[in-house]
Amino acid sequence: MGAAVKVAQRMRVPFYDVKAQYDELAQEMESTVLDVMRSGGYVLGKHNKAFEAEFAALHQTKHAIAVHSGTDALRIIMDAAGVGPGDEVITTPFTFVASVETIVQTGATPVFVDIDPRTFNIDVEKVRAAITPRTKAILPVHLFGQLVDVKPLMELACERELIILEDAAQAIESTHEGKPAGNFSVAAGFSFYVTKNLGAAGDGGMIVTNYDDIAERCRSIRIHGMGRERYYYDHLGYTARLDEIQAAVLRVKLPKLPEWTARRAEFAAIYFEELEGLDLQLPYTLPGNNHTYHQFNILSDRRDALQAFLKEREIDSMIYYPVPIHHHSPYLKFAPEGSEDRVNGPLAITERVSNEILALPIHPHLNKDQIRHVCASIKEFAQSTVGA
Ligand SMILES: *Cc1c(COP(=O)(O)O)cnc(C)c1O
Q: Where are the domains of the chain?
C-alpha cells in the first residue's frame, strides 16, 4: 500500500510524446513508407494528391495545397495575396515567431496589436485603431486550438477593404459555428510540425483557400513559380513541396485525428472540474467556437514557482511564449511606440500573459490518472505559500 502511494506520487507526466502516434499505427506506417520508397514516386506523388483532397474535405474548403512546412504555407499565402514592400500587416506579438518572420520576409512591416486577456488571440477591437492607409492585411493567429473572434474581424476587414490571412498552424479541426479554419479569409496556413495536433515524422504544412486564383498561384509558388509548362516561370517561388513520405505518414494519421482531439477534450474537462475555484485563470472559449486544445493554458501570478513545483514531481509543463516577438533583436524595430512600458503600454496584456502563462500536459497519449495527478499537484501547490 505504502509502495503503491509512492509510485503514484512519482508518476511521470511528459509534455509531449512524439513517437506515440507512430507506436499506435506502426504497422500501417511502416508499410506505407516502404511503399513510397519502392514506388519511386517521390515528388508530388499520389499521397500528396490524396492528402490534399482529404484535408480540403476536413476543412470544407475548395482547395488544399500541401507544402513543406507551416512557415512555408504562411510565406506562400502572403506572396500569393500580393503582400510586399510598403504594406503593413497587422498581427499579434504573442505567437510563434513564424507568424511575424514571414511578414518581414515579404518586405512588409508587421504592426503589433495586443491580445484579448481571456483567449490570448488578437484583440479585434484594438485592430481597428491600428489600421492605416498602408494596411494591406490582417494576420490573426488561432492560438492554442481556438479561432480568433472571427465575425467582428471579418466585418472590420470587409468595412476597411482589407484581406485576412489566417495562421491556423495550431487550429486543425478548430471551428466557429461548425465552420473550420480556412473559411474566414483569403487563405490559411497549417503546420504538421511533430508536436502539432497532427504531426509528421518531420516537417509538413498545408494551405487551404476557397479562391481559384489564389490556389493556382500557391501551387505555382510552391515549385519555383513554375507555370503550367515546365521551365516557364510566372512568379518568384521556392522549393516548398511536401515530401511524399511525409504525405504518406500524415494520411495514416489523419483518420485518427478526431479520436485524438476528443481525448484532448476529455482531459480538458478533467482540468476544468478539478482546478475550478483555485486562484488560477482557466481557458476561455468564445461563444460559437470549439476548442481543440492544442495547448491547455492556465495563468498564475506564481507561475515560475508552480512550474518548479510540478517539475519536482516529474510533471512537465511549458511556457508558450516566454518573450513576446517584439522583444527579440530582429523585431525590435517593429515594437510600437510606448511599448517599453510593459505595465501600461500598448502591449501590456501580452506582457502580463507572457509572465503568467503555463501550458499543462494534454497530448492524447497520456491517461486520465496522469491528468488527475497533475491536478492534485496543482492543488497541493495552491495550498502552499511557495512563490507567494
Ligand atoms: C508551428 C507554428 C508555425 C510554423 O509551422 P512550422 O511547420 O513549424 O513551420 C507558425 N505559426 C504558429 C502559430 C505555429 O505554432
A: 21-113+120-255, 257-384
Q: What value does the mean pLDDT take over residues 31-56?
A: 97
For the cut 70, the answer to whether the pLDDT of residue 229 exceeds it is yes
266-282 pLDDT per residue, tens: 999 999 999 999 999 99
Find out whether the beta carbon of 205 lies less than 6 Å from any atom of ligand 1.
yes
* Ligand 1 atom at minimum distance from 73 CA: 9
CA 139 to centroid of ligand 1, rounded, Å:
13
Ligand 1 pocket test, candidate residues 99, 121, 165, most atoms within 8 A of CB: 99
CATH number of 257-384: 3.90.1150.10
How high is the pLDDT of residue 37? 97
Using the atom order of ligand 1, give the atom closest to the CA of residue 141: 13
CA-based torsion, 94, 99, 102, 107: positive or negative: negative
Report the nearest atom of ligand 1 relative to the CA of 72.
9
pLDDT band at 7 (very low <50, low <70, confident <90, very high): very low
Q: Give residue 9's pLDDT.
A: 59
- Residue 304, pLDDT score: 98
Pocket of ligand 1 contains residue 200 by CB under 6 Å:
no
Rounded to the nearest 10 degrees, how much is the dihedral formed by the CA atoms of 209, 215, 220, 221?
A: -30
Fill in the DSSP letter of residue 255: G
- Give the CATH number of domain 21-113+120-255: 3.40.640.10
